[in-house]
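ok trying this again, last paste got cut off
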Amino acid sequence: MKVSLDEMATFAEVVDCGSFSKASQKTDTPVSTVSRRIADLERRLAVQLLQRTTRKQQLTDIGAVYYDYCRRMLQEAEAGELAVQNLQVEPSGILRITSPLPLDDPFGSKMILSFLQRYPKINFEFFIHARKVDLVEERFDCGIIPGVLGDSSLITRGLGSARVIYCASPGYIKEFGVPSDMDNLQNHYLVNYEAPSWLPPDPLKKMINSRMLTNDFFVARRAGLDGTGIIRVPEVQVGSNLMNGELVEVLSQHSNSLPLSLVFPSNRQFTTKLRAFIDHMVRFSEQNAPWEFS
């Protein structure tokens, strides 16, 4: 019997993603190709693997058995690639990193550039996701994660802690004055940022008027720079703005610390490229991080 690894891999992705269209997006394959591969696979095996309706799809009993074999096939293939990469003397390949925290210039760009200059055979992919990311399922090598971690399946390397601060533009301060404490905020305004779960709740939200709400950090920062109101962000995200005098820290007595960590799955082998990045990130942060490194 002729075996098609492409069909098996596509079938596993369709099951994992829950639909043909999502599998198409994840694998960057046209939906028509995904559909054809599944149809060819079922025709070749002479069985129905998926029961499809207009609203959902689900595995048949035979499909569930076959899926286990397809998933193990993909896991073995990934393990084979990791084994080959671990045998390489010089780190190479694609390194996928994710974080919910935009690392503001110049730290982030200089860290990445210096890494690529040191390891020219590595291609770097860095994705910002506000949602919780499954490093294994989404095939990320590593995450730069703020906040307290509760997932015991991840290995953690602490990078220290960043301050979460309030700040405002010089123009805003000129018009409304410097807020001195939490009890004297009647004439001030807040740029209300719909913060992700890793950022501690903002006590100011219940004590000060807000004339703007956003869930986008860059919109919030721009509003702060333009004088719309006081913003609350991790200091690392506005480091260059503070340095250039475009923003001024206020209410410093109410800042707090946010731990930062490198995290990576415990059930995956360390590739040479991942080891290289971890070492570089720790060393670069120790020398250049605009936060308290430890």
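PB: full thing came through this time. The chain has a mean pLDDT of 84.
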